[in-house]
Amino acid sequence: MTTALSGFSQEEFARHLSGRGYKPVHAARVLRAFYDGNGAMDFGGLKLPMALTEELRGFAPDVAIAARQAAADGTVKVLLKLADGRTVEAVMMANFSPDSAAGCVSSQVGCAMGCDFCATTKTGFERNLSAGEMVEQFLAIRREAALAGRRLQTLVFMGMGEPMLNLDAVLEAVRRIASNGMGNLGWRQVTVSTVGIVPGIDAMTEADLNIHLAVSLHAPDDATRARLLPAGKRFRVDDILAAADRYQAKSGRIVTIQYCLLKGVNDSPEQAHQLAALLKNRRMHVNLLRYNPTGISLSGAAYEGTDDETADAFLNVLRKSGAVAHFRRPRGRDIDAACGQLRAAADKTKQ
Ligand code: SF4
Asked: pLDDT digits over 148-195, tens only?
């Protein structure tokens, strides 16, 4: 049983209060105040029964900030220590606009996907996060945004872990974060990202939550993808894009294709043309990412980011073919910005 308010849906908390002899109507007011205060346990203004106010003290979060890194561009990365001592990362990214921010949260502790260019993969998979633990990350980065005078406007599930392998908890977290009476972020402000787990994409289509989907493709052909995303090779590029088509058709939300440019691996003109051909009759948007080096990979490779000239040429091929493509602005370059890096650095200092 959870000991934090982030661990409850509104219905669950109403049932809990009822079981303790309180009016279930207090649940909505308490949770609203909790989320509006970004996790603050201050219910003084609610005029609750004294016994309930006392009891609420027992619901203090069991998650704490273990480390924090701030970059020159305003990006802040936080490492949260969970009740079992494990740690997980979340990031508040400063947007160009001085009063807005974007957030990134993790869905698992570690990751089983083994993507060869990713720092998270090196520690392997430890466990799934609960919906409440994802909500705590959202609250932590919304606090960071507020401290910086910014408003958290969007949230992506793109940190540690593969959200589709913990989809029930991810979608429950989304319900709490996006919905009006709780996190109030808005459904369209939330994106769930996947390396291309087809049944997960279909389950998300079925859930029909009006949120965005991002697919990390990283290669236009199955052979290169198998090298970069070994666990993802279970699903062919064509099947992944077909699932993304189904999501787009049902939700009406344009799917984002993430493509991290790696020097000499997936950045050739041929690969740009291949990707352009795949997207020819699709209205998907391409985000080209610049690689943040994470050291020697599991397979022994030392990946490097694509140089500017090659990256521009890749972008031009896509644009000339009619695709909507952009570079995603790298953020937090002067901190351990790629997912898993702060956690790895914190673990190293403990040794
Ligand atoms: S890139 Fe994402 S899915 Fe792949 S290993 Fe890293 S955290 Fe897991």
From this structure: 999 999 999 999 999 999 999 999 999 999 999 899 999 999 999 999
Residues lining ligand 1, judged by CB closer than 6 Å? 111, 113-115, 118, 120-121, 160-162, 195, 339
- Residue 285 and residue 245 share a domain: yes
- 15 and 53 in a single domain? The answer is yes
Region 113-136: mean pLDDT is: 90
- Clarify whether 260 is annotated catalytic: no
Per the annotation, the verdict on 339 as an active-site residue is: yes
User: Mapping DSSP to helix (H, G, I), strand (E, B) and coil, where does residue 157 land?
Assistant: strand
Alpha helices of the chain — where are they, by DSSP H?
10-19, 26-36, 50-56, 131-147, 167-178, 198-207, 222-228, 237-251, 269-279, 308-320, 341-350
Count of Cβ atoms closer than 10 Å to residue 53 Cβ = 14
Residue with tokens 């959870």: 2
CB 261 within 8 A of CB 314: yes
The CA dihedral of 23, 28, 31, 36, to the nearest 10 degrees, is: -140
Name the catalytic one among 12, 89, 270, 309: 89
Residues 74 and 55 in one domain: no
Residues 6+ apart with CB under 8 A from 84: none
| Pair (51, 158) in one structural domain | no
CB contact at 8 A, 236 and 221: no
Determine if the pTM surpasses 0.85. yes
Centroid of ligand 1 to alpha carbon of 213 (angstroms): 16
Q: How many CB atoms are closer than 10 A to CB 348?
A: 8
In sequence order, the 6+-apart residues with CB closer than 8 A to the CB of 62 are 3, 4, 82, 83
Query: Atom 3, ligand 1: which residue's CA is nearest?
Result: 162
What pLDDT, on the 0 to 100 scale, is given for residue 331? 65
What pLDDT is stored for residue 350 in this prediction?
A: 47
Range of the domain at 10: 5-59
User: CB-based burial of residue 112 (10 Å sphere; 0-12 exposed, 13-18 middle, 19+ buried)?
Assistant: middle
Residue 339 confidence (pLDDT) above 60: no
Q: Judge whether residue 330 has pLDDT over 80.
A: no
